[in-house]
Write a structure and sequence with these properties.
mainly alpha; single chain
């Protein structure tokens, strides 16, 4: 199968079950854009992680600045907080609840 055929098959599948997204409010749009931005930042962190481990191609390694690696961690955290704010998530509660859940899981396993 070539790419053109595959694209046509996917178009036909999409026609059978179209996904309809309707973003009505500014809040919904903000949540979507922050989610996409978070994925972008995570991707950049992944790229820098590969560079730190020297697993990137030579041309990327030549331009790599380790200070950028630290900034990518900050970008991920800041964007996560922005997304939480847009979605109305209480991060203090969410983190504490999750840590408690993890601790309880470890107690059961050990």
């Amino acid at each position: 199968m070539n790419i053109d055929t595959l694209q046509e098959k996917v178009k036909e599948l999409d026609k059978k079950k179209p996904v309809i997204y309707q973003l009505n409010t500014q809040r919904e749009k903000e949540i979507l854009t922050k989610t996409i931005k978070l994925n972008e930042e995570v991707g950049e962190l992944c790229n820098d992680t590969l560079s730190v481990l020297k697993l990137q191609r030579k041309s990327k390694l030549e331009n790599f600045d380790k200070r950028n690696f630290y900034e990518e961690f900050a970008d991920v955290i800041i964007t996560t907080i922005q997304l939480a704010n847009a979605a109305g998530v209480d991060l203090d509660r969410a983190i504490n609840d999750k840590l408690e859940k993890i601790e309880n899981r470890y107690k059961k396993d050990h």
